[in-house]
Amino acid sequence: MDAPALTLMAIALLIDALGGDPRILYRHVPHPVTMMGWGIAFLDNALNSPARPVEYRRLAGAVSLGLLIIATAAVAWSVHGLLARVTGGWLVEAVLASTLLAQRSLYDHVAAVHRALIHEGLEGGRAAVSMIVGRDVRGLDEAGVRRAAIESLAENLSDGVVAPLFWGCLFGLPGIAVYKLVNTADSMIGHRTPRHEAYGWAAARMDDALNWIPARLSGVLIALCAGATAARALRVMRRDARHHRSPNAGWPEAAMAGALGVRLSGPRLYAGRMSAEPWLGVDGADPGGHHMQRALAITVRVFVLLFVLVAAAALILSV
Q1: Model pTM greater than 0.85?
Q2: Cα-based distances in Å from 183 to 72, 180, 203, 204, 213
Q3: What distance in Å separates the CA atoms of residue 20 and residue 15, rounded to the nearest whole number?
Q4: Which residues pair with 279 in a beta bridge?
């Protein structure tokens, strides 16, 4: 961690918060995550044959992930080196880094669910939340729609903002790029399905490892930004986070449940099958509209706190 990396990430946070992805740029060139997805899909199609033994597919998945990590780090390091020699290159690098953060898009997507429930009713809310969650939303009532949106907000605060920022602060553009590559691989192939359980094993485990610290940090940040309910957020997080099926997602979700005084997670449908997930904040209420508003407000406070912390650290280290 050094001043240039911290400065880069502070500027990237600001760019993403103010404008999100530069749509004009990505009308002409592919988004970095899109290109990562191309590489992941190409190797999946080339090497992940169902006819191969499980041991081969697991090894092939690990080797593929390793190659993709090396390629991503090499490209990001080369881009960093090239832009360092160009006048104003630091700004281009910050824009590139900002596209690997998800502050603006995360807030906008969850706020859209809240607005849809208000203006379009339950069906509008279901349609909006289906854009950000993988569960079957057809049977969700209004509380279920809000619950799914708040869970997505908390989990993706960690995966989409805190984790890439953490690795970017440590290693600059290569750090945030490699994290995003692994996270994208996990979302594409890290599933317990017949096709990907073996081949995607390395991606899923690597994603768990890279998110271990950021997930717990995200829970603490949510509690710090919860105001009067900070103690309850910490208490529910310590009590319930370990009950989540994910080793990481339970930390920010349980902290948000405690901060809001609601219950999250719980049973839900995936591909027509009921998944008996345990409750987080089991003694809380079902979320209402005011809970969604407060969840969004807490998330904005976390964004501001992250910027202040990173910018202050950059300033201290640069002196």
Answers
A1: yes
A2: 13, 5, 8, 8, 15
A3: 7
A4: 265
Reference 98, options 209, 190, 149, 173; nearest CA is: 173
Whole-number Å distance between alpha carbons of 16 and 255: 25
What's the pLDDT tens digit per position in 258-287? Answer: 999 999 987 766 655 666 788 899 889 999
User: What gap in Å lies between CA 187 and CA 102, rounded to an integer?
Assistant: 15
Q: In this predicted model, what pLDDT tens digit does every residue of 135-171 receive, in sequence order?
A: 788 888 999 999 999 999 999 999 999 999 999 999 9
Range of the domain at 38: 3-318
CA distance 17 to 274: 37
What is the rounded distance in angstroms from the CA atom of residue 149 to the CA atom of residue 210?
24
Q: What 3-state DSSP class applies to 266?
A: coil
Is 186 in a helix, a strand, or coil? helix
Say how many domains are in the chain: 1
CA distance 110 to 103: 11
